[in-house]
Amino acid sequence: MKEQFLAEYASLSSKSKGRLFDEKPAEGRTLYQRDRDRVLHSGAFRKLQYKTQVFVYHEGDYYRTRLTHTIEVAQIARSLSRNLNFNEDLAEAIALSHDLGHTPFGHAGEEILNKLMKPYGGFNHNEQALRILTKIERRYPRFDGLNLTFETIDGIIKHNGPLRGKPTPLLLNLKDSMKLNFRTFGTGEAQLAAIADDIAYNAHDIDDGLRAQIFKINDLEKLSLVAPLISRIKANFGSIEESRFISELVRTIVNKLVADILAETANRLQKIRPVDPEDIMNAEQPIVSFSKELTPKIKQLREFLFAKMYRHYKVNRMASKAKRVISELFNLFMEEPIVLPNEWRYLDKEDLKNNQARLISDYIAGMTDRYALLEYDRLFDFKAKL
């Protein structure tokens, strides 16, 4: 959508605060389109194909990975942005970036890596995404990272709203160099990308859970959000095969959540009547939101998924294996950093002494599920090829 058709409260590429390193404009692309393209072409983005969402990649080809989840989030973010006349390109750039920092094996991998890194500053996938985008990716001659616009970086930092607590050294450095304000909300586009993430995992985890037979459709009839939607599908289509029923249910849930957000956000925009993006960032509450009526129903759904799916014994067993793999890799690399690949031994001796744990954390976090398992075999199985 051309910028003249966007709302006055949308983030305009022509009014961007720019990049940390000045670059010539790209012919035929706005700054935010260029951000999106840089993320799409990054090595970290490609690795999402073999990173766990809930089920490890070898448990089945159907289940979502971090890559398919990210694509779904970006699609929803664009759709929401278009309906509300926000900048689709910025929302998409933020959505495509939001999970780049995830470890192999999903939240189990993040949990154990954070525990191992506690003495060294901890680990958080949101901050790891920033490390990737500002330091780890090495694709350009004049700078590390992707040199994304300030607005995209700010949106990733505020993925969950204004920052609370003491910022880490990385965040403080970004705050100073990019003149960011951590106390405000993100732009409308950042808020849309964040809530698109909520829509995607709420609906699509139901899809994966049903098809994995971790729970059944009858179990969902106890949920206040889902029960009337199930009744409507039965009334409209009668008895249909389960696979079609599941697909229709997931579509209906997404449509329900999207419609609620569009209505609630329109109401909140009407109340504050923003004339620029700063009015949205400085508002007293998020402008993009679910309604008060739907919020407790979504909470009930999340509690159901947590109890029935994320803590199912099959998921727990794979999580337990994943934690052992990451723990043993981390401990070995800490004790014997000489076994790290050459490209991950670029620090001099003094830097290695001071930053060894963070370097190893970067290496492990960047692994796919299958690469982590392969590396584990190479290092602990005498018969494996090195």
Provide structural commentary:
- The chain has 386 residues and is mostly helical.
- The chain folds into three domains: 3-178, Hypothetical protein af1432 (Orthogonal Bundle); 215-314, no CATH class; 319-380, no CATH class.
- Helix content is 59%, strand content 0%.
- The protein contains 17 helices and no strands.
- The chain has helices spanning 31-40, 43-47, 66-84, 88-97, 106-116, 125-136, 150-157, 169-178, 188-211, 217-220, 227-237, 242-272, 277-281, 295-310, 313-335, 349-365, 369-380.
- Helix 15 crosses helix 17.
- The longest helix is centred in the middle third of the chain and has 31 residues, at 242-272.
List the topology elements.
Layout: H1 31-40, H2 43-47, H3 66-84, H4 88-97, H5 106-116, H6 125-136, H7 150-157, H8 169-178, H9 188-211, H10 217-220, H11 227-237, H12 242-272, H13 277-281, H14 295-310, H15 313-335, H16 349-365, H17 369-380
Helix pairs in contact: 1-4, 3-4, 3-9, 3-12, 4-7, 4-9, 5-15, 9-12, 9-14, 15-16, 15-17
